[in-house]
């Protein structure tokens, strides 16, 4: 495994991967986009009144039947 200055190493029980410094900004923006998308669901789902109807509305705001 070649690691250069500025690279990030991610390691866990499944192995390790080197993330080149040049990929960090793209990964950061992707993570931010995913966090924003997940927040649409995670926030409401933690409320006591959350139910399947609200889940359907969040996942399919246009009310289409799939």
List SSEs in N-to-C order.
EEHH
First CA to last CA: what distance? 46 Å
Gyration radius, to the nearest Å? 19 Å
Number of helices, counting only DSSP H or I runs of 4 residues or more: 2
Strand content: 15-25%
Describe the 3D structure.
The protein is elongated and about 50 Å long. Helices cover 45% and strands 15% of the residues. Strand 1 and strand 2 (15-19) form a beta hairpin. It has helices at residues 24-45, 52-59, and strands at residues 8-12, 15-19. It has one domain. The protein is an alpha+beta fold and 66 residues long. It has two helices and two strands. Helix 1 packs antiparallel against helix 2. The protein has a two-stranded antiparallel sheet.
Name the descriptors.
66 residues, alpha+beta
Topology:
Layout: E1 8-12, E2 15-19, H1 24-45, H2 52-59
Antiparallel strand pairs: 1-2
Helix pairs in contact: 1-2
In a nutshell, what does this entry contain?
By secondary structure, the chain is an alpha+beta fold. It has helices spanning 24-45, 52-59, and strands at residues 8-12, 15-19.
């Amino acid at each position: 495994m070649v690691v250069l200055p500025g690279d990030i190493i991610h390691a866990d029980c499944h192995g390790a991967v080197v993330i080149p410094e040049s990929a960090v900004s793209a990964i950061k923006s992707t993570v931010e986009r995913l966090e924003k998308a997940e927040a649409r669901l995670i926030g409401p789902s933690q409320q006591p009144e959350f139910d399947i109807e609200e889940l359907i509305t969040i996942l399919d705001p246009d009310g289409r039947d799939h």
